[in-house]
User: Fold this.
Amino acid sequence: MSPTIEVLSFRTETSTVPERSRRWLEAASRTSEAPADGPVARSPRSVELPSLNQIEQLRFLRAIASAVEVRKRNQLFRWIEGEFQTVLPHRLMVCTLVDSEGRPFVIDRFSSSPIPNEVLQEICAEGNGLISDLGDTWLNSGARPLVLVPSSDRYVPFSSELGRLGLRACAVHGVLDHHRTTGSQFFFFGVPTDRPAHVSYLLELLTPYLHTALIRVSASDQDGASEVAAPALLSEREVGILQQVQHGKNNVEIAELLGISPLTVKNHVQRILRKLGANNRAQAVGKAISLRILSSSSKRLR
Assistant:
């Protein structure tokens, strides 16, 4: 079966903003406590890092060389499911960005095989999804690579949920920017379970390139959106429907909330996609946020 790309709506965790902002800043503070001579001197891990064999080195070099070509979302998908996958195999990856107030929102998810929608919703649900708990655990561990496999102690709190979702092992890492307030988080599900230290090392190596590629793609999306005239682009009804789409509602749920038929909702969504020049619902939300028709905190700006 050929790889598939699935994209989630932008999601903010407004109910936990103060707490998550504090944790993000505390994690940044812990990472900034290194002495001036750099990370090699501060971490005993430097003498214990796994090594890459010749084939692994070649795959890694190919992956980072091809990363510089990533500018568009489809290029990001091909890179992740191509060269990146040869270095760090996984079944599902979820990408998030964190804004200046410490609010994480889902940008994309990429899967190499179909994953049921109900599983994806449990992973990425606003405020109480699995990635929310995993992200907090990563921050509380000092923003170091987090690899959860059955043989690790930290796996225990997540074992039943990961097992129930059929995603036996996972890994988390991210990047703090130079202000130490914003950055990104990446969640990998279905990673190899036999070499957790090796996976952790690969996360250290690959995440900066992944972060940079995601930033370029996000910037490219915004540049494309800026070409669309924002004033009066969407009607009041269309904005209201798009807000519900941003909240993760499907057509039936939106219809019940607004007292209209699911077919009417479907027609509105199709018009929204055409007006914004978007290929799917998540991209429409992203462009609407870029145009300030919606905000990342789910409050309408115009």
About this structure: Residues 1-17, 34-47, 226-231, 297-302 have pLDDT under 50 and may be disordered.
